[in-house]
Design brief:
Blueprint lengths: L13 E2 L11 E5 L3 E6 L7 E5 H13 L1
Antiparallel strand pairs: 1-2, 2-3, 3-4
């Protein structure tokens, strides 16, 4: 895991479907061919967490299983 911003491409960010604009705890992510980047919606210029695509896929599967 890293918090370094990628420098070789522009990321396209997607806001969580749970974000409602009411100031709650919201995240957005940008997916590339090999990485998933996650950041706080309210701090778009702040730090991000970057993980390998395989780790992101495992995380999503675990969420689906409950």
């Amino acid at each position: 895991m890293t918090t370094a911003a990628p420098t070789d491409r522009v990321l396209v960010w997607h806001t969580s479907s749970y974000s409602n604009g009411a100031g709650g705890e919201c995240v957005e992510c940008a997916i590339t061919s090999t990485r998933a980047h996650v950041r706080d919606t309210k701090k778009g210029d702040g730090p991000m967490v970057t993980v390998a695509g395989s780790a992101w896929a495992a995380f999503l599967q675990a969420l689906k299983r409950g």
